[in-house]
Amino acid sequence: MHLQRSCACSEEACIETDRFSIAYLEHNEPPRQMHTHNWLELYFCLSGGRHFVMDDTVYPLADNDLFIINQFEPHRTEPAAGQVHQRFVLSIMPHF
Description:
Number of strands: 8
Radius of gyration: 13 Å
């Protein structure tokens, strides 16, 4: 298992292994549209700098926040002005 450095690579690895993948991200990726996955996602915020959006509710991210996102649950993140955002994202296939 390799620690991924982008959301796209982590998602590809999860699909490829059909098990799980882990990404460590410390850069601000561009905002994504509301999206879903075929897998579960654990989003662990090491340092704020973004807002998490689920079901039209905006949650400011604080250090050590953990979001557990169910399969097919629409979500996205938005940047917070000028802040670095560090996080781990664990993607897990439901059958694993």
